[in-house]
Write a structure and sequence with these properties.
21% strand, 232 residues, 2 domains, 7 helices, alpha/beta, single chain
Length: 232
């Protein structure tokens, strides 16, 4: 005997369930692209901007609720964000508070990295505390770097750029870097952690800054931006 044909109502139910799943997926996607922490809990919010974000309208960022901006400035011993000079000039005109970020490379001596940072970032009392991004591990270094040396060189680097900035730095620590080195417990600085849509908990100490949505769509840029909350 031949197989029974599915009844029309079963097809209709299946179609309804499929449409519901698609609608739910689209809503989740839209929510992810537009979600930011509630202002009642986090009154001060801002954004991290670099060349990867394309042309950014900082005045528009201010208008949609950004209170501060961090600009990617330098990387390692010689890397420089190609948009930093342009972005620095633009953000000064926007009314936003602003600061600069260095991407730290544990394979490179502290002195060479700090020289790169102080060359790129002016000594300016208007700047927010400098941020040091810690995401690259030392396992891939051409010359082996022992774990104690990672912390020692980072401490030297911090002392050097803090002397230039006149204020303590903030450590922007990636989960994998913290898991490997436990820097948050060893170096006493304010922390910047990252986790989309929910508060991060991968350090014992509490964070000060939080990248809450790494793909926020705004009217200020054609590309999604990294939206940041400041703990009250």
């Amino acid at each position: 005997m031949g197989r029974k044909k599915a009844s029309p109502w079963r097809w209709r139910v299946a179609a309804i369930l499929l449409l519901a799943a698609l609608a739910g997926g689209l809503y989740a996607w839209w929510q992810a692209r537009h979600w930011a922490p509630p202002r009642g809990e986090f009154p001060m919010q801002g954004v991290l901007i670099g060349a990867r974000d394309g042309d950014v309208d900082f005045t528009a960022l201010h208008a949609i609720g950004a209170d501060f901006v961090y600009l990617e400035a330098s990387r390692g011993a010689a890397g420089r964000d190609p948009a930093f000079i342009r972005n620095l000039a633009a953000v000064r005109e926007s009314g936003l508070r602003f600061g600069a970020l260095h991407v730290y490379d544990p394979c490179i001596p502290a002195e060479r990295q700090s020289a790169n940072f102080v060359t790129m970032v002016p000594r300016d009392k208007a700047l927010l505390p400098p941020v040091v991004e810690l995401s690259k591990l030392a396992e891939g270094c051409a010359v082996r770097v022992a774990e104690p040396a990672v912390e020692s060189e980072l401490t030297t680097f911090l002392n050097q750029i803090e002397g230039h900035a006149g204020q303590p730095a903030v450590l922007k620590i990636a989960p994998e870097f913290e898991e490997r080195y436990g820097i948050a417990d060893h170096i006493e600085r304010n922390l910047w952690l990252t986790r989309d849509w929910s508060q991060p908990e991968y350090t014992e100490r509490s964070w000060t800054l939080w990248t809450a949505n790494s793909q926020l769509q705004t009217e200020a840029s054609a590309e999604p931006v990294r939206w940041v909350a400041l703990k009250p």
